[in-house]
């Protein structure tokens, strides 16, 4: 029988930083609310949750890197919304931001997850921020809780 390692869904005693993009905040606020709800329902104390609002998705990885290096938190969660416009900018920005977060995560001494939405329209983004597609803020917070506990095991 193999040794099984899984993270518990228990955020009690965990200090979490949430980095959120203010651009398209009509969606991102819903992601943040979902993440906080998930963390609190799984035992986190609201006083142990710090939310850092940055101007846009491009700035999310910069703040995430600073927070992971600070070692003040048990985990970092990145949230934001990138909606396709009329130019090629969407593809460049989305790829760059996700790649940067992935790079930071692979070098981090603490867990880092993300719930960045990339959508073709505002309606599609809203569907993924508490609509029929669930709430990706909640989902990514749940993944962070599991990873924080697995990291410590």
Q: Could you walk me through the main structural features you see in this protein, from its secondary elements to its overall organization?
A:
- By secondary structure, the protein is of the alpha/beta class.
- It has a single domain (16-152), classed as Rossmann fold (3-Layer(aba) Sandwich).
- Helix content is 46%, strand content 22%.
- The strands form two sheets. The protein has a four-stranded parallel sheet with strand order 2-1-3-4, with helices on both faces. A two-stranded antiparallel ribbon has the order 5-6.
Task: Provide key terms for this protein.
153 residues; 6 strands; 46% helix; alpha/beta
Task: Describe the SSE topology.
Blueprint: E1 16-21, H1 25-41, E2 49-54, H2 60-70, E3 75-83, H3 89-107, E4 112-119, H4 122-127, E5 129-131, E6 134-135, H5 136-152
Parallel strand pairs: 1-2, 1-3, 3-4
Antiparallel strand pairs: 5-6
Helix pairs in contact: 1-5, 2-3
Short description:
The protein is about 45% helix and about 20% strand. It has about 150 residues and is α/β, with parallel strands linked by helices. The chain has a single domain (about 15-150), classed as Rossmann fold, CATH 3.40.50.960.
Just give the CATH class. Answer: Alpha Beta
* Secondary structure category: alpha/beta
General shape: globular
Task: Tell me how many strands there are.
Answer: 6
Q: How many domains is the backbone divided into? A: 1
- C-alpha-based Rg, rounded: 15 Å
The fraction of residues assigned to DSSP E strands is 15-25%
Query: Regions with pLDDT < 50 over 5+ consecutive residues?
Result: none
Q: According to CATH, what is the topology?
A: Rossmann fold
Architecture, CATH level 2? 3-Layer(aba) Sandwich
**Major sheet size, sense and barrel closure:** 4 strands, parallel
Give the averaged pLDDT, no decimals.
95
Strand order of the largest sheet: 2-1-3-4
Through-space gap between termini: 19 Å
Would you list the SSEs in sequence order as H and E? EHEHEHEHEEH
């Amino acid at each position: 029988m193999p040794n099984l390692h899984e993270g518990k869904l228990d955020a009690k005693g965990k200090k979490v930083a949430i980095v959120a993009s203010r651009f398209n905040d009509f969606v991102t606020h819903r992601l943040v609310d979902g993440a906080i709800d998930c963390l609190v329902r799984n035992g986190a104390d609201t006083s142990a949750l710090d939310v850092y609002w940055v101007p846009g998705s491009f700035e999310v990885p910069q703040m995430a890197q600073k927070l992971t290096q600070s070692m003040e938190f048990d985990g970092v969660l990145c949230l934001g919304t990138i909606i396709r416009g009329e130019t090629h900018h969407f593809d460049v920005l989305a790829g760059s931001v996700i790649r940067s977060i992935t790079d930071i995560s692979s070098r981090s001494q603490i867990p880092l997850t993300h719930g960045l939405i990339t959508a073709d329209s505002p309606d599609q983004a809203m569907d993924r921020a508490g609509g029929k597609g669930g709430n990706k803020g909640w989902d990514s917070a749940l993944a962070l809780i599991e990873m924080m506990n697995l990291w410590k095991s």
